[in-house]
Amino acid sequence: MPMSIVSNVAALGAQRSLARAGDSMTRSLERLSSGQRINRAADDAAGLAIAEGLRSQVNGMARAIRNTQDGISIVRIADGALDVTTTILQRMRALTVQAANDGGLSAGARAAVQSEVTQLQQELSRVAAATTYNGTPLLDGSFDTVLQVGADVGETIPIRIGRPGSGMGADGLGVRAVSVTRAPVDLAATVFPAVSAAQGVPASGRLVLAGDHVTPGVYEASFAALGGTLTYDGKTFDLGSVDYTGAVTSTDFLTRLTAAAMPVFQTGHTPFTGSAGGLTFTGAVPGPASTAADAVRLTPTYSGHTGASGGIAVIDRAIAHVTSTRAELGALENRLEHTISRLGVAMENTAASESRIRDADMAWETTVLARNQVLTQAATAMLAQANRSAQNLLTLLG
């Protein structure tokens, strides 16, 4: 074997082996300290890309589980309020059945029954308006949204409670018309809904009650026949409460009606106009930032009076509607609970897949570290031997 002073080939080989064992030991120490097999893209470029995709899925499913739990909370709040609504409707029905017993009640007793019915109608509307989730009304007919129940686009479940203009208040359920003290009246009414800025060009809502309110000899009977309630912007006006005593012309009748309604609705314009084709109530134009809920609120609606016997059927329909809605909410809650179960299993398996790619096998890395430590010690010893071998040349030179 040639002996050279300029190039110590044996030392260079030992140094190269020592550097390789040192780098391998450094990687093992890094993996053991972090618990991850992939600490930088260079460790496993393809594995890193796959693992990041799996991690996105795991994080998305974890958030989707919380979203679904929020949906269950929404459903339970709505169902609890509707349980109260059902109790109120059952009480109203019992009172209406009582009031329908003409032979057993005096006018004063029937008025007392109507007083409680009126309070219950108001409570129905209050419950519908007060039932919210994080400030969002649930029972006013405007709740129509979707829940993101998955990690990817399109994994949604819709939730809708009621319909616009058909909430769970007295008006939406149709029980505002229940009256046990007044004769049945139900005028033909045509509603033109308001349009909000979110829906298009803002336009006012209108309600037209059939009848000739301007022709002499006819308008008197048309105004006298007005009955039922008109609801607008959360306020209700009894059309049959107007006193037309002393009114002569159609303008007089219209003035009396407007004077009675203005303090209730507090509109900035004269809402009623009469014609041979009907009596028209016109609401305000929704503002430039108005929503669909504002359009519903500013759309006038009409309810007649049922009388005691007619009120039973109206309340029965309301109870059936609430019961049907609660059944839909119950089925939706079950669906959401199944979704949570599915997401939990999927998240567990996806996390396991990511772990197999990204996480370090601690037992294996410990074995690799021990091997590299031995190799490092051996390479260090051989490098020392190689460096000392050059001194043997001094013997020849001496």
UniProtKB/TrEMBL annotation:
<dbReference type="GO" id="GO:0009288">
    <property type="term" value="C:bacterial-type flagellum"/>
</dbReference>
<comment type="similarity">
    <text>Belongs to the bacterial flagellin family.</text>
</comment>
<dbReference type="InterPro" id="IPR042187">
    <property type="entry name" value="Flagellin_C_sub2"/>
</dbReference>
<keyword id="KW-0975">Bacterial flagellum</keyword>
<feature type="domain" description="Flagellin N-terminal">
    <location>
        <begin position="6"/>
        <end position="143"/>
    </location>
</feature>
<feature type="domain" description="Flagellin C-terminal">
    <location>
        <begin position="312"/>
        <end position="397"/>
    </location>
</feature>
<keyword id="KW-0964">Secreted</keyword>
<dbReference type="Pfam" id="PF00700">
    <property type="entry name" value="Flagellin_C"/>
</dbReference>
<comment type="function">
    <text>Flagellin is the subunit protein which polymerizes to form the filaments of bacterial flagella.</text>
</comment>
<dbReference type="InterPro" id="IPR001029">
    <property type="entry name" value="Flagellin_N"/>
</dbReference>
<protein>
    <recommendedName>
        <fullName>Flagellin</fullName>
    </recommendedName>
</protein>
<dbReference type="InterPro" id="IPR046358">
    <property type="entry name" value="Flagellin_C"/>
</dbReference>
<dbReference type="GO" id="GO:0005576">
    <property type="term" value="C:extracellular region"/>
</dbReference>
<keyword id="KW-0282">Flagellum</keyword>
<keyword id="KW-0966">Cell projection</keyword>
<dbReference type="Pfam" id="PF00669">
    <property type="entry name" value="Flagellin_N"/>
</dbReference>
<dbReference type="GO" id="GO:0005198">
    <property type="term" value="F:structural molecule activity"/>
</dbReference>
<keyword id="KW-0969">Cilium</keyword>
<dbReference type="InterPro" id="IPR001492">
    <property type="entry name" value="Flagellin"/>
</dbReference>
